[in-house]
Amino acid sequence: MTLRFTAPVVLPCDPGCSVLRNAAVDVVDGRITWVGPVAEAPPHTGAVRALPGLLLPGLVNTHCHTPMLLLRGMGGDLPLLRWLHEVMWPAEGRLTASDVRTGMVSGCVELLRTGTTTSVEMYFFTDAVIDAVLAVGSRVLLTPGVITAPGWDRLGSWEAMRNGISRRIDRDGLRSGPSERIELGYGPHAAYTLPAEALRSVAEHARERGALLHLHLAETLDEDAALRASHGSVPAWLDQLGVFGGRVLAAHGVHLSDDDIGLLAARGAAVAHCPGSNAKLAAGVARVAALRRAGVRVGLGTDGPASGDDLDLWSQARLAGFLARVTSGDAAALTAPELLLMATRDSAAAIGRDDLGTLSPGCWADLVHVDLADPAFVDPADDGQLLSNLVWAAGARLVRDVWVAGEQVLADGEPTRVDRAAATRELREVAARLHT
Amino acid sequence: MTLRFTAPVVLPCDPGCSVLRNAAVDVVDGRITWVGPVAEAPPHTGAVRALPGLLLPGLVNTHCHTPMLLLRGMGGDLPLLRWLHEVMWPAEGRLTASDVRTGMVSGCVELLRTGTTTSVEMYFFTDAVIDAVLAVGSRVLLTPGVITAPGWDRLGSWEAMRNGISRRIDRDGLRSGPSERIELGYGPHAAYTLPAEALRSVAEHARERGALLHLHLAETLDEDAALRASHGSVPAWLDQLGVFGGRVLAAHGVHLSDDDIGLLAARGAAVAHCPGSNAKLAAGVARVAALRRAGVRVGLGTDGPASGDDLDLWSQARLAGFLARVTSGDAAALTAPELLLMATRDSAAAIGRDDLGTLSPGCWADLVHVDLADPAFVDPADDGQLLSNLVWAAGARLVRDVWVAGEQVLADGEPTRVDRAAATRELREVAARLHT
Lengths: 436, 436
Description:
Two copies of one chain form a homodimer.
Chain A: E1 2-10, E2 20-28, E3 31-37, E4 47-50, E5 54-57, E6 59-64, H1 80-93, H2 97-113, E7 116-121, H3 126-136, E8 139-142, E9 145-146, H4 158-172, E10 175-176, E11 182-184, E12 187-188, H5 196-209, E13 212-217, H6 225-231, H7 234-241, E14 247-252, H8 258-267, E15 270-273, H9 275-280, H10 288-293, E16 298-300, H11 313-328, H12 336-343, H13 345-350, E17 367-370, H14 383-394, E18 399-404, E19 407-411, E20 414-415, H15 420-434
């Protein structure tokens, strides 16, 4: 199937953050075949979708536990460890597979409505999560959790969790589903919730299969005080265990020394920066400038909506900018184009996916259409002001339409495949039950 | 005229941040006469407006230069002094009164659409600002600027600026317009842009008239390095000049010592906390916890949309929470109810207006109706989760309707008195001209 999208402004999110005027994006079988000014476009005979606004690639959320939408607002004023042990883990212990599907459906809709087409998810009840993603039509890199913390043994041993992922990958391949909407990886929760042998072994399984290894790392100082007392640097200890070397995505990375950052850079590990969750739980501020300077790929994440509250990656981008500036004293730290690329291209790169987060031939046609008529844009003809207004003033609220692999999954703010009001009713029924 | 509003949830923003269920707000001649559960309401014979969502008082933005909407996104990556001297002041030098009205109209609409009914404005072309506010139907505490910085002498001497305000107050009274929509005060720009005599004299004029004195204070370390070298603490020097003592609102207050904070508390001065602007310009983070502990009234402000980008006070509240938590390491610093009160009741208190920012008898019926059907609210029956979801996940995007003094000025997101598309067209014509 051949389709041409045209728009007065197209942001391909290439390395230079170009602003293309009166441009076209050609799509064949869900993938982009050509991007550039309409005047230079190749001959086209298929349908044309002429959009009035701004077209950019779907955002990539590199760290999320989306089904936690069910728990949004619970225990919001506690530090991480108390929040996990006293509120979240007990509540999650009561979730059924059906509940997780319900939370994930509403969450995927919310992600689409903010322009996020791909999320990296660490959760449990894998079938339920996949089923929800396929129902809504978004895209996921799902790394089912592997954890041995209190209460989680109801889901089996860490070996069973690991084997469940490996069997699934060996059966379906790393990527599966229509237009490869599902990618699988491994989600060993963290150094402080797994024995050394589990960390070593899960990393080995991931590396053997070329799969993403997605773990929490250095989120707070408290979480791994005991590990630091025994082993010194936790990243260095993980490295000795053989955790690094494959595709590794470390969520948070707040408390990293210069040596730790050097290690991540040397091993090619990436970081999912989650400024909102880290700030709200008073975990701290990740050293984004130092990470980027060292050559570590840094993507953006919202974290789960129980701590991150909304799934809006634009507000995370703005917060990343605010925090980079106040911690450095540099008013040019993380400019609008840098933040836009961080939410798209850099986030895709952080998870090892050069076929997402950018509009160029060969990439999936995951597209976001933003309303350009809103006064958030005061002088749309000026490239610099357009990018500034998009990132700092427009963001999620102006997302109108979204396509995944060329299929429209959001039309004028509403999901095309599921009924949002019905999904909300189901969400609230489950949430109310969790409170009783 | 007698009108009753009913809603399943009413947040009066009283000191305890109560959540009223199935409640009513009675309004006579624009002012609230009764608030409480419908079951306990007094007999009522007038019209009833039964709302399906959540009703709360209009937010109060304590520091803004709203017409700078015209300049949104210009020079966004510069520190304060370069941004002012190289970009803003030259651009503002080209603004006509008509331009300022155009920027203010679109800005007032944007304020209403985020649920802000009152803004404290420091700007010039007073007639144009007032005209815009009355056209849209919002409410303003306007403190026309008094400044002697480069280029500003086109508007006359500081004495002329001061006299212009005094004459207007002496003629019209402090408050004027339909339902007292206009309050006037004095806006001496800052210690570093005015001679000592001007600061002393403007404060005297304000105090004599019971008017608000609204100035920038301690925004950056650079701005008043010369003053500090000569006089030590700038707040202490201002105090010697007699600046404090009346109604004083200090915008920003980022770089304040313990002694400075003690002085503000002793003199009853308030602070307009503008976390977004301070972060974006890398000015720093105000010591909100210390200010509140000392008993200083702290309100929230967006600052002008050239540095603050949007006029969304909800996102400022969230950012205030994030910054309070990362700077203190306390995950319970500034909870959702505290942030909601900061944007409403505390902001009204900071400008000396106990008839705004809260729903209680005698207050103006400035009301905001928020969509409660959105999945931002996952368990609306739970008071704690409702408040958390409102502040951290819902905010501006769910504002549907707004009333000022009982008159509906926003209906389903659109202003009732002006045409938003036409206002945007005018805004863009002026913005495009400013770039050429």
